């Protein structure tokens, strides 16, 4: 059974999706890191890039957004007759454009934008700026599928795209027109607002957590939703009645954290851990980088009771299922490399591919399974629209700068020695260095046996003071006469 737990009472909004009480998806929306995907802005073209058939758009964010020629309405309208003319024929520098964010800023990359403005409901998707009609392939009745395509073609305008979703299957034409009119009015209202404002400016902000909740409820016939915000609870109850969703919605009041009450908090706390244990004793190691993510599969404590090949295959089967769950849960996107334990039989590799594809089918983001490389590493891609949970919940370590490693005492000590040797020909008699104890131990040797040699090499008396902490570091505080350093040292 599917459950949703919505923790909306505090400034940071969290929505968890559970299946059989196992966390499958988590959306975290801190007030300072709210996703901009779906937001609509009045932007200004800052640079045209003919070589990339794209433009940069100032839409009010720290980094300018990227807009490809194919996402510009004027290109979509002209391409049937003009073919693929240079982007300069469709947009110019300094021009104002309505744009919508399709992918958030990530790392050094700015947001990805589109000029094809889209509004999505559980039954109908409206896209302004493109001539297109689509009908869900999940319709059970071919005649009904054809009927809705003809209905959409009948009522759409030349610059509109419509996608009829599965939940429209049992509705009538009047409801279709009512929802289409509502979405058209929403777009016209944004156009009117844009006409009176200067770029860049925000015109429409998507209510992301509400959209997510409604989308989950629309995708499953029934389920259970617990929510701790009474105003949102009332809004969802009203929406549920209007859209006839058979979900049990309850408002949870009280002082206890709703995630703790529903045993979700403990599962959330494990999400940023590097190692994920499997039920059979194997484990996964996650390494996220800006370029790609690597998942290493290890047999761990699992020894099995059958032949080696079958044992390794069993670990890989469990790892494939858990890896896909973790990708969705952690919102890991881009290029993903899964290093499964090497198997001798090619049919086992194919079965692992089939498991990954099957488990990925429930992911709302597009997942492509490329296949195994010659080195036995499975290549997977997952569409990126927003930062991963790890990026949202953590910051790079100020000590290791996100590498997970710091310099050894030996490395730092020998660097200090080289720095001191550079001053060996100055007239100063002494030097004061502030240093961590581990670095000092290496610099001076066991029982400070190397001190006399070092002082002779640098032609100075060495005064050391110590800093606390686990960071291997040093700071040359001062050069001077022995008397000057002794006074400062005290």
What is the beta-strand fraction? 25-35%
The percent range for helix content is 25-40%
In the CATH hierarchy, what is the class of the largest domain? Mainly Beta
> Which fold name is given in CATH as the topology of the largest domain?
OB fold (Dihydrolipoamide Acetyltransferase, E2P)
By DSSP (H or I, 4+ residues per run), the number of helices equals 14
Largest sheet: 6 strands, mixed
Say how many strands there are: 24
Distance between the termini: 70 Å
Biggest sheet, strands in spatial order?
16-17-18-19-21-20
The CATH superfamily of the largest domain is Nucleic acid-binding proteins
- Weakly predicted, low-confidence segments: none
| Mean pLDDT metric | 89
**Structural class by SSE content:** alpha+beta
The total number of structural domains is 4
CATH architecture of the largest domain: Beta Barrel
Q: Characterize the quaternary organization of these chains.
A: single chain
**Radius of gyration, in angstroms, nearest whole number:** 30 Å
Descriptive account of the structure:
This protein has four domains: 2-34 and 206-266, Nucleotidyltransferase, domain 5, CATH 3.30.420; 40-204, OB fold (Dihydrolipoamide Acetyltransferase, E2P) (Beta Barrel), CATH 2.40.50.140; 272-393, no CATH class; 409-489, Ribonuclease E, catalytic domain (Hypothetical Protein Ychn, Chain: A, 3-Layer(aba) Sandwich). Helices cover 33% and strands 29% of the residues. It is built from 14 helices and 24 strands. The strands form five sheets. A six-stranded mixed beta sheet has the order 16-17-18-19-21-20, with helices on one face. A five-stranded mixed beta sheet has the order 3-2-1-14-15. Strand 17 and strand 18 form a beta hairpin. The longest helix has 23 residues, at 173-195. It is globular and about 95 Å long.
């Amino acid at each position: 059974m599917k459950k949703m737990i919505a923790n909306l009472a505090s400034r940071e909004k969290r929505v968890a999706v559970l299946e059989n009480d196992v966390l499958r998806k988590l959306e975290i929306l801190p007030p300072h890191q709210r996703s901009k995907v779906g937001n609509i802005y009045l932007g200004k073209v800052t640079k045209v890039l003919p070589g990339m058939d794209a433009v940069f758009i100032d839409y009010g964010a720290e980094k300018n957004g990227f807009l490809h020629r194919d996402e510009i309405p004027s290109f979509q309208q002209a391409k049937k007759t003009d073919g693929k003319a240079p982007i300069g024929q469709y947009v110019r520098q300094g021009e104002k454009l309505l744009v919508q964010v399709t992918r958030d800023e990530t790392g050094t990359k700015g947001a990805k934008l589109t000029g094809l403005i889209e509004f999505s409901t559980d039954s109908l998707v409206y896209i302004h700026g493109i001539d297109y009609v689509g009908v869900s392939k999940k319709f059970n009745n071919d005649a009904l599928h054809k009927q809705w395509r003809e209905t959409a073609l009948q009522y759409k305008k030349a610059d509109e795209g419509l996608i009829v979703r599965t939940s429209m299957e049992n509705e009538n034409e009047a409801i279709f027109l009512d929802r289409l009119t509502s979405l058209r009015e929403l777009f016209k209202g944004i156009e009117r607002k844009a006409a009176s404002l200067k770029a860049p400016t925000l015109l429409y902000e998507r209510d992301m957590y509400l959209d997510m909740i409604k989308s989950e409820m629309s995708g499953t016939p029934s389920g259970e939703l617990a929510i701790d915000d009474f105003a949102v609870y009332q809004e969802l109850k009203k929406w549920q009645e209007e859209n006839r969703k058979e979900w049990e919605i309850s408002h949870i009041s009280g002082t206890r954290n709703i995630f703790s009450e529903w045993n979700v908090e403990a599962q959330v706390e494990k999400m940023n851990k590097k190692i994920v244990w499997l039920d059979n004793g194997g484990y996964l190691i996650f390494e996220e980088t800006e370029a790609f993510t690597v998942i290493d599969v290890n047999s761990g404590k699992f020894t099995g009771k059958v032949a080696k090949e079958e044992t390794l295959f069993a670990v890989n089967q469990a790892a494939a299922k858990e890896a896909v769950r973790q990708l969705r849960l952690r919102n890991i996107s881009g290029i993903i490399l899964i290093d499964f334990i090497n198997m001798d039989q090619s049919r086992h590799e194919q079965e692992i591919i089939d498991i990954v594809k099957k488990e990925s089918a429930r992911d709302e983001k597009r997942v492509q399974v490329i296949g195994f490389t010659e080195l036995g590493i499975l290549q997977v891609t997952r569409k990126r629209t927003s930062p991963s949970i790890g990026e949202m919940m953590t910051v790079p370590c100020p000590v290791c700068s996100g590498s997970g490693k710091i310099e050894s005492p030996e490395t730092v000590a020998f660097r200090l020695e080289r720095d001191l040797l550079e001053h060996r020909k100055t007239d100063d008699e002494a030097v004061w260095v502030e240093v961590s104890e581990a670095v000092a131990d290496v610099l001076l040797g066991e029982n400070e046996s190397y001190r006399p040699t070092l002082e002779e090499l640098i032609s100075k008396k060495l005064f050391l003071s110590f800093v606390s902490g686990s960071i291997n570091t040093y700071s040359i505080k001062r050069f001077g006469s022995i008397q000057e350093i002794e006074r400062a040292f005290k």
